[in-house]
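Hello,

Following up on my earlier ticket. Below are the two sequence lines again, exactly as submitted.
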Amino acid sequence: MLALHEVTAGYGHFTALWAVSLRVERGEAVAVVGPNGAGKTTLLRVISGVIAPRTGTLAFESTPLTGRPPHEVVARGIAHVPEGRRLFPALTVAENLRMGAFLPAARRTFAETLERVHALFPVLAERRQQRAGSLSGGEQQMLAIGRALMSRPKLILFDEPSMGLAPVMVLRLFDLIRKIREEGYTILIVEQNVRQVLKLVDRAYLLEVGRIRMEGRADELSEQDFVRKAYVGL
Amino acid sequence: MIDPIFLAEAAVNGILLGGVLALLALGLNLIFGVLDIVWIAYVDLVMLSMYLVYFLVMVYGWPIWLGALAGVGLGVVLGVLVHVLIITPILDSPPINQLLATGGLLFFIQSFATFLWTTDHRSVRLTLPIIEVGGMFLSFARLVAFGLAILAMVGLYLFLTRTYIGTAIRAVSQDRGAMALMGADPQRVYIVTSAVGGAMAGVAAALLSIQYSVHPHFGAAFGPITFMICVLGGLGNMVGAFIAAFIMSEIISVGGVLWSTEMGYVIAFALFIVMMFARPGGILARRQ
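Thanks for your patience. The regenerated structure is below:
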């Protein structure tokens, strides 16, 4: 479904990704794990078009995606739940969700999608008139995910969804992402919470200083001594 | 001692003036909120629209309502042109360059207007009555202008809260990048914002042209007070600008009756400077 081929990207003189190749098949959940500064966020930003790759190509559903701007990437069916959530704090919960459905195609099915999002996150229905900035961290993350679902994506990119959440909330969040998965969405998730995320996904890539160091099935990878010692903490 | 009826009249006139000032401040603030650029030449665009209203009505004999609509239309066109020709190329430049570019536009428009139309003051002559309400004498033109200004602001409010693109404009002013991830083309949001800001300038032009005469330096008369209102209300803060417009217009109007019009402006600007020390983030900013 999504294929990156030898993508190199960075900011100014700094190169954050070196010839990264990665695939996500339809219906799959894939994680990219790795330490801080490994280039995980950059990877997602390249996919959603926020930054253009210097070299290499991207394709989504067998058509090229290289160098397309973010608003076109969303229209192709890739939603990005960005790092730090990036909600519109002064807009209400309802308005944030409405903005998630900004695309003409998403507007047509707005009421139906909203119902599904409310079913998944009842708290968003309760707080619909509240400003997004007044929600708790966990609720904000749910809103960010709900907002992404409003565009009716085929593939959802999650950037560190557990960041800044209390441990109890982290577990709930992973349950919710599992639910979203079961609804048939394809998922690419970037996480530092390696132990939790490996329980959630089918496959994982290990990214270190901008290079893919390892890849494999999630259960196999979590058994590797190297990963256990360095990231899982067992 | 001044007759209280004069003070009351001044207070009402202050409110009436505040309506149009608020309209100008909201238009300018809307653009700033989204693009982070202050259009220094904003009121000079108003001046161009006023000239159009003048020529259409006084020279070509159009009815005033049609001339006013044309003035609004020109405002929209000018808003889009300024964005495409001047703002787009310097969108990522340092703020000082952006100020210089829009400031340069101000002098360009002023000089060009002087060249084309000389420094003559021209006014749309309408025979509008003076109305007496409870001993106060109020200009009908001002009442109409106030009513229409309020109507335009209600329209702006509904646009910003009830439509997708209007809500997107508010969203972009909070997080530019995130709105692109929602599927909105930033360039399109900028153009719509500039068009709406231009429309506000056009409406203000139509409403000002039935009260004031137009001349190439019209922008110098209303420009500074408009910026002051925006800053006093907190740049980008629409509610703050709305309130600040009425504070300023009351000071100018009531101060004008108590002393003189010039003194009214002196007090208004003095208060502005004091407020910049007391509340630099604007009247509605939360204290740190």
